[in-house]
Amino acid sequence: MLKAETVNKCYQVHPEDNVAVLLQDSTSESIDVIGGTRPTIVARQSIKLGHKIAVAGIAEGAPILKFGVPIGFATASISEGDWVHLHNCRSQLDERSAKLDVHSGAAGDTIYE
Questions:
Q1: Is the pLDDT confidence value at 43 over 90?
Q2: Which of 48, 61, 80, 82 lies deepest, with the highest CB count within 10 Å?
């Protein structure tokens, strides 16, 4: 019996978006882009379900586009295929967002007891 091939997929909401959302956990490999202007992209690292992948290079300070609108700004240069999350972007509404823990989302500038 042949084993079914697992195909990693992400979804690009709007054609002008520079990020897409992973539809399952993905390792560094080719990912099919649903709804985008390109058929595939290669992830540069493992990315978890629901997280964003850059479908184009994003310069430091440039907007992160999702839903066809800016949802934040790059705090560092982001290469195509990079994981886009708290370590390389910040909210356009909250300057503290750039200091949140990349895994837990906890504030890094506040001590909780």
A1: yes
A2: 82
